[in-house]
């Protein structure tokens, strides 16, 4: 049956599916940052997408410093491997530190305030980040150096599978597996799950909830940093608004999967990636955003808890 | 009870939320090996008292001393490490962790894995139903099972003093009897207990001493059997 549908849609279906999967993995990494913070303190961190943007700018800056990119972001053809290695280490650290700092300075003092206060503050932080981005790199879209070539690895096949596709998969999948294992088996991971489910009980167990929250911001930030590097290397462009759209798509992914739910964020990310690429391919690029946001609205109406949303939510 | 210093001393405690003070110069003690109960109507401040002792709610004035050491202002996650554990009101089970994982969370402060495993086995001996349910999410247990899990979880840190907040709340009478039997048995093995209850009759029957809390103030305190036969208590709290 699939073959006949595929035949009707044309051979490009495979390329769209691959692009959707790869983009979806990127959304998933960002969605994890939204979902983990929401899971712990019920804050929709609207600045998360802009943190991702700053991570991309930081990576671009590193590439320029290392000499892998020129002042306009074009690849110089040198130091590519070194630059990628440095980015993959430094950008997550940068984003983690920034995210923890913002929590410390902005959200932590509002921990016991009404929910709306940190939410509005997060929108404020989003604008501050965006303006930092403008000061840093200006308002024009920039090149992100093509340090990983889009060379086709599967000539003669219907699908063009490039080094860039491979890079996204090779980086994002292990990160997600590691995160899953971390949350399931380490003491800090268990403390995070316990805190998300009942912060008061977590305190009574001897869990330092403030430290768990800081760790959550650090991990969410680091994932955004990884996503920023991989996105830059895959899309080869950056701009101060990149966090807004990508962030909203990732947020939609988190809601689709069930906000607060880690596997849900991954599933939602991949679905949004597929919907985006199939929608763009068959319906047209101008329908991409309306399509995604229509989905967000429909989920919020019919399934506010998302696909994998907390089914055993405790209620006293 | 000789001249040993009390295990827990709460001295002129004041606490509250926002503009409102809930506890007014509240003082109480728990001696080593005792079951002490605080009885009082809904909203009197019993839970606030326990949450202050555990370090979850901030004290505004007064002192709390545990095992000879001031714990005033010590954060909750450190209080547990000193040997003071609580089974909170409403049980506060981790709903999406299994029964066994809930017990493991109770031992979060410990690193002796063999000892933890032995204590989980002990918990299963105390409450056999928990062993049958050990792989189920805590959120799927019945109210009585959750209460057993909450007590067992609190014991996993090997406390010197166990705080119990309304362990009988919403449970069927035969389950309540079972829970109180366990409290009595734990005490026989040497556990000191501070028990908060609206079920004053059950609480006073199991306790050595009691305090009556009315709108944040201690209004009576005496041996439990004295309180049990005091006409004022009988009228106000035992429905006579
Ligand atoms: N988190 C809170 N915020 C504001 N007021 C609270 C809070 N918890 C309890 N109170 C108030 O404090 C008073 C004492 O409550 P509590 O300690 O729960 O009493 P009890 O456990 O005896 O029923 C009540 O008036 C209650 O409304
Ligand atoms: Mg109470």
Would you give an account of this structure?
- The complex is a heterodimer of chains A (316) and B (240).
- Chain A has 12 helices and 2 strands, in the order αααααβααααβααα.
- With 316 residues, chain A is mainly alpha-helical.
- Chain A has a two-stranded antiparallel ribbon with strand order 1-2.
- Chain B is α/β, with parallel strands linked by helices and 240 residues long.
- Chain B has a domain of 167 residues: P-loop containing nucleotide triphosphate hydrolases (Rossmann fold), CATH 3.40.50.300.
- Chain B is built from 10 helices and 10 strands.
- Chain B is globular and about 45 Å long.
- The complex binds adenosine-5'-diphosphate (ADP) and magnesium ion.
- Magnesium ion (MG) binds next to helix 1 of chain B.
Q: Quick summary of this structure?
A:
The complex is a heterodimer of chains A (316) and B (240). Chain A is an all-alpha fold and 316 residues long.
Instruction: Give Rg of chain A in angstroms.
Output: 20 Å
The helix tally of chain B amounts to 10
Q: SSE order of chain A in H/E notation?
A: HHHHHEHHHHEHHH
CATH class membership of the domain at 8-96 and 160-237 in chain B: Alpha Beta
Mean pLDDT of chain B: 95
* Coarse morphology of chain A: globular
Please identify, by name, the CATH architecture of the domain at 8-96 and 160-237 in chain B.
3-Layer(aba) Sandwich
Bound small molecules, by name, code or SMILES, are:
adenosine-5'-diphosphate, magnesium ion
Low-confidence parts of chain A: 311-316
Largest sheet of chain A: 2 strands, antiparallel
> What's the CATH superfamily of the domain at 8-96 and 160-237 in chain B, by name?
P-loop containing nucleotide triphosphate hydrolases
In CATH, the topology of the domain at 8-96 and 160-237 in chain B is named Rossmann fold
Shape descriptor of chain B: globular
**Quantity of strands of chain B, as a count:** 10
Largest sheet of chain B: 6 strands, mixed
β-strand amount of chain B = 25-35%
């Amino acid at each position: 049956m699939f073959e006949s549908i595929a035949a009707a849609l044309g051979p490009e279906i495979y390329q769209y599916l691959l692009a959707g999967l790869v983009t979806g993995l990127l959304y998933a990494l960002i969605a994890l940052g939204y979902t983990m913070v929401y899971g712990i303190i019920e804050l929709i961190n609207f600045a998360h997408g802009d943190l991702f943007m700053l991570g991309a700018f930081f990576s671009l800056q590193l590439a320029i410093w290392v000499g892998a990119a020129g002042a306009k972001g074009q690849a110089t053809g040198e130091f590519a491997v070194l630059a990628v290695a440095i980015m993959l280490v430094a950008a997550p650290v940068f984003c983690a530190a920034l995210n923890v700092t913002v929590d410390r300075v902005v959200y932590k003092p509002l921990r016991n305030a009404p929910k709306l206060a940190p939410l509005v503050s997060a929108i404020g932080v989003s604008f501050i980040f965006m303006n930092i981005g403008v000061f840093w790199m200006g308002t024009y879209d920039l090149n992100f150096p093509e340090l990983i070539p889009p060379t086709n690895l599967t000539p003669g096949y219907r699908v063009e599978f490039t080094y860039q596709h491979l890079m996204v998969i090779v980086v994002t999948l292990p990160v997600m597996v590691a995160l899953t294992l971390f949350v399931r088996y380490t003491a800090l991971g268990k403390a995070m799950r316990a805190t998300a489910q009942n912060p008061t009980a977590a305190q009574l167990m001897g869990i330092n909830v403030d430290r768990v929250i800081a760790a959550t911001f650090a991990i969410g930030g680091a994932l955004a940093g990884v996503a920023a590097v991989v996105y830059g290397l895959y899309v080869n462009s950056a701009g101060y608004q990149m966090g807004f759209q990508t962030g909203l798509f990732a947020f939609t992914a988190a809601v689709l999967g069930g906000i607060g739910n880690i596997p849900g964020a991954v599933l939602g990310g991949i679905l949004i990636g597929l919907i985006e690429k199939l929608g763009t391919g068959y319906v047209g690029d101008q329908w991409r955003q309306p399509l995604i946001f229509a989905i967000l609205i429909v989920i919020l109406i019919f399934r506010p808890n998302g696909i994998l949303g907390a089914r055993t939510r405790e209620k006293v | 009870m000789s001249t040993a210093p009390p295990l827990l001393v709460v001295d002129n405690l004041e606490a509250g939320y926002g503009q409102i003070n809930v506890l007014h110069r509240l003082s109480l003690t728990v001696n080593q090996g005792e079951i002490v109960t605080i009885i009082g109507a809904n909203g009197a401040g019993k839970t606030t008292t326990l949450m202050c002792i555990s370090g979850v709610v901030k004290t505004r004035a007064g002192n709390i001393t545990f095992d000879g050491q001031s714990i005033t202002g010590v954060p909750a996650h450190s209080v547990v490490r000193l040997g003071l554990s609580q089974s909170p009101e409403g049980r506060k089970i981790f709903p999406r962790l299994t029964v066994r994982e809930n017990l493991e969370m109770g031992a979060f402060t410990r690193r002796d894995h063999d000892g933890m495993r032995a204590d989980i086995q002990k918990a299963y001996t105390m409450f056999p139903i928990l062993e049958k349910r050990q792989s189920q999410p805590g959120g799927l247990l019945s109210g009585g099972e959750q209460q057993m899990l909450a007590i067992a979880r609190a014991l996993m840190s090997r406390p010197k003093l166990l705080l119990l907040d309304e362990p009988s709340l919403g449970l069927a009478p035969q389950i309540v009897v079972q829970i109180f039997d366990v409290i009595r048995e734990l005490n026989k093995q040497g556990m000191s207990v501070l028990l908060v209850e609206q079920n004053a009759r059950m609480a006073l029957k199991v306790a050595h001493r009691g305090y009556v809390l009315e709108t944040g103030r201690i209004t009576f305190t005496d041996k439990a059997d004295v309180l049990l036969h005091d006409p004022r208590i009988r009228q106000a709290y035992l429905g006579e």
